[in-house]
Request: fold
Amino acid sequence: MKAIHEESDRLIQEFTVLCKSRSQHVGMLSGGNIQKVVVAREFSNNPVLILADQPTRGIDVGATEFIRKKLVELSRSGIAVLLVSADLNEVMELSDSLIVMHNGRIAAYFDDTSGLTDEIMGEYMLGLKQQSDAEVRRVCHD
Reply:
């Protein structure tokens, strides 16, 4: 139990979870702090892949920035991060490469997002443009 309590205290501090104590029920925390608890649990388990689906939806600005920073840190450390988000700003800020989907199919694959704009992405998201099969196939790796 001592090791569990020490790990709980460490994660509360590292992930800046605002709570009365480690004994407080997670359901009694704010939405942003609940999200931080989930992030702490998933990020502290030595993952090789993180699938982040709408990781900052509905939480405050402070928690959003914290979670985005942690996702970037994980990515930079060599952990694969697959981000699924309807927030275009989030996608553009956090992604090195990205796939644009339209009607359940890959409409475009960009292996470098540095020159990508909302307008270009929007054309693919709306189905106004579609990359060729050869361009889309670049996302497939053996």
